[in-house]
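Key result, reporting period 2: structure in, sequence out.
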């Protein structure tokens, strides 16, 4: 590594580190490499192969005593399938690697696999391999996913253009509200349970992603894993543009609105700063938006000035960086 001012990863940050790796390993001609939801690798068949991988570490991404293993199995596959959905592709296969402590009960792994199998079946994705090894104490899980799309159809983060509308599918903040309810031990009425289910049993927007990618005028697309406060920055940076976001327009579910009103939580902060909704964030021309057959909400517009202007926000808006451990601006 070249000499750097930052002495440790918390100074450099998750995205700083990824930037360093990317500088060192530029993608070959015609291939989309580091920096999007999936790599896009053209095939001679005239289709493109999509590949992504994600890691879940006990203590960082989940607490063993809090998450039922079925739900963890579901979620491990879901977040990867979502990365293919984010490109507008069809997920086809996953590979599952696990590092497990020797004293883990076999029943835990059975339940994990049941959840993994249920979502795999639901999306028609085959588990084709992986790796198994021992870990000193923590469970470490890695899933790689393969998908495909017609040649050139993948929607990249770098495709947003001045004047595009910024849109999202579904609603934002439910997963963050569910996590907050778990961490704060909130009593589980039907609304709270609905939020917790969205946190543990996310449904990747595969059908929506395929339809969006087939619509001319849909430009940049990604899935929302860290919260739009952080994820939108990736589209803006990759596309060299900025955006104005209308905070009161952010789509909030009735369950989230009711729970926030009752407990005094800031729904807009959960919707912008909270992650793991796995909705699709995309930009498109106003003409394309009028013809879209995918349920969505327009939340703002792309403009040719850097940064995000949050209109109507009551407080600061932030996402999440894994090494900084705090919301980053
Ligand atoms: P996502 O939120 O969609 O999972 P990430 O923010 O984790 O994406 O990663 C951003 C980009 O950086 C992706 O293209 C990913 O493949 C790439 N990336 C992340 N970590 C590494 C690594 N250690 N080596 C190479 N590429 C990486
Ligand atoms: Mg992603």
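The corresponding designed sequence is given below.
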């Amino acid at each position: 590594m070249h000499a750097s001012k930052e002495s440790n990863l918390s100074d450099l940050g998750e995205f700083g580190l990824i930037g360093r790796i990317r500088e060192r390993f530029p993608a070959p001609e015609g291939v989309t490499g580091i920096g999007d939801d999936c790599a896009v690798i053209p095939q001679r068949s005239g289709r493109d192969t999509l590949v992504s991988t994600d890691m879940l570490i006990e203590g960082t991404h989940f607490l063993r005593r809090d998450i039922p293993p079925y739900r963890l199995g579901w979620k491990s596959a879901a977040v990867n399938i979502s990365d293919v959905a984010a490109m507008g592709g069809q997920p086809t296969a996953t590979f599952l690697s696990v590092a497990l402590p020797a004293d883990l009960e076999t029943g835990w792994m059975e339940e994990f696999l049941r959840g993994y199998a249920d979502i795999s079946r639901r999306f028609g994705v085959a588990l084709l391999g992986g790796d198994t090894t021992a870990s000193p104490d923590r469970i470490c899980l890695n899933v790689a996913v393969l998908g495909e799309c017609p040649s050139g159809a993948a929607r990249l983060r770098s495709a947003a253009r001045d004047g595009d509308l910024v849109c999202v599918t579904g609603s934002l903040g439910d997963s963050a509200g569910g996590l907050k309810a778990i961490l704060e031990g909130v009593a589980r009425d039907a609304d709270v349970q609905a939020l917790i289910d969205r946190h543990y049993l996310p449904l990747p927007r595969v059908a929506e992603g395929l339809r969006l990618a087939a619509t001319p005028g849909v430009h940049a697309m990604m899935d929302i894993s860290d919260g739009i406060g952080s994820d939108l920055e990736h589209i803006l940076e990759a596309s060299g543009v900025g955006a104005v976001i209308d905070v009161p327009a952010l789509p909030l579910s009735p369950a989230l609105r009711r729970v926030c009103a009752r407990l005094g939580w800031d729904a807009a902060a959960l919707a912008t700063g909270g992650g793991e909704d796995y909705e699709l964030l995309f930009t498109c021309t106003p003409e394309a938006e009028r013809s879209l057959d995918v349920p969505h909400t327009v939340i703002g517009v792309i403009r040719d000035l850097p940064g995000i202007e949050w209109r109507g926000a009551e407080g600061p808006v932030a996402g999440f960086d894994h090494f900084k451990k705090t919301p980053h601006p």
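DSSP finds eleven helices and 13 strands in the chain. The pocket of adenosine-5'-diphosphate (ligand 1) is lined by residues 18, 21, 34-37, 54, 83, 225 (CB under 6 Å). This case is discussed further under Risks and Mitigation.
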